[in-house]
Amino acid sequence: MIEIKVPQVGESINEVTLVEWLKQDGDWVERDELLCEFESEKATFELNAEEAGILHIVAEEGEDLEVGAVACKIDTSAERPADLPKAEEKTTEVKEETKTAESNKEESNSSTATKTKEDFKAAGIKATPLAQAMMADVKMDASQIKGSGSQGKIGKMDVYQALQNPGAATSQALFSREKSTQRMSNLRKTISRRLVEAKNSTAMLTTFNEADMTEIMAIRKKYKDKFREEFDVNLGFMSFFAKACAIALQEWPAVNSYIAEDEIIEHSYVDISIAVSAPKGLVVPVIRNVESLDMAEIEKAVVDVATKARNNKLTLEEMTGGTFTITNGGVFGSLMSTPIINLPQSAILGMHKIQERPMAINGKVEIRPMMYLALSYDHRIIDGRESVGFLVRVKELLENPSLLLMGKDPIESLLKL
């Protein structure tokens, strides 16, 4: 019998929460098989079986455990059940099951939600003829509607309610006033604490500007297919912004610095944290040495960290050490905001929704795709000159993408001006 303990996941982390057991008590587990999922104040991680054997669970789901505490035990002296396939055979079976599940899902998605009278009857769903016709007309899934009539019969008012509240749970009773309580996760606690700390411990100020996205949008339209074919990744906006910030941060080093007690630490490199909305909260994975990466490498790095974030697969190392942060509220429709600094960094750039607006261009009014930019910064270390100069430089680089190649106009470089 061996003990499986909570591993050390970071110098400052002493406690984690056991989120979910992926195996049941008494199950046979293979060596390196995933046993459970933990959540720390910074990230989630999984625990693997050190040896094959029978699992004996010690800690319960939702329990807070100190690093080094016993999570479970494995009886390595137990014999493998005869009816269990070997590890290699099990892997093959899982792959086949996955293919079957995907096939069934595609078939399910291809079928329509419309039901005939016989279909309703066969499914055990009761609905008035008018309600049936209404649901069929808008292709609404009747199983998602809770009827208010006798024995749960669906009436026209139930369908109206579902149509008027498409984002709400359609099974919820009308005029419901129910409340639910759930425990705040360690990650959410940490997010809350750090946001309040950033507001209270820095002299935070925000400066604004706007960028004409015409040139970047034209480049993406012209080269997106070829770029995708060549590098197997989409050409997005983030690579342009990351590259522009990398150049501007090296020209304005104060924005790429932070305060550590009574010292100012400057960085010769640019590690950009990208804010990503993950299932369990906002996380900021880091892309390192952005100043040395090309556009395709940046795009691949963004896709990699964003995918890991959404699947809760980020490691502690991938979430620490950034020198500057970019957050894109525009993907949610935000037109303007004042982002909060990601400590211990001193500045964060907020991207926003691209919206066509009338602009005065050479004395004429033209419709241009414009984006508001917001730079929140710590005024203790960054003065107005640095903050405004940095944001103006980012704007210049975005509106003239050719400058991203070497940081200056190619003709001026040629003439050594």
Low-confidence stretches: 105-115
Radius of gyration, CA atoms, in whole angstroms: 27 Å
Please tell me the CATH architecture of the largest domain by its name: 2-Layer Sandwich
Overall mean pLDDT stands at 83
Broad structural category: alpha+beta
Number of helices in the DSSP assignment: 10
Biggest beta sheet attributes: 7 strands, mixed
Q: Number of folding domains?
A: 3
Helix content: 25-40%
Identify the overall geometry: globular
Q: CATH topology of the largest domain, which one?
A: Chloramphenicol Acetyltransferase
Assign the CATH class of the largest domain.
Answer: Alpha Beta
CATH superfamily of the largest domain: Chloramphenicol acetyltransferase-like domain
Count of DSSP strands = 19
Secondary-structure element string: EEEEEEEEHHHHHEHHEEEEEEHEEEEHH
The share of residues in extended strands comes to 15-25%
Distance between the termini: 74 Å
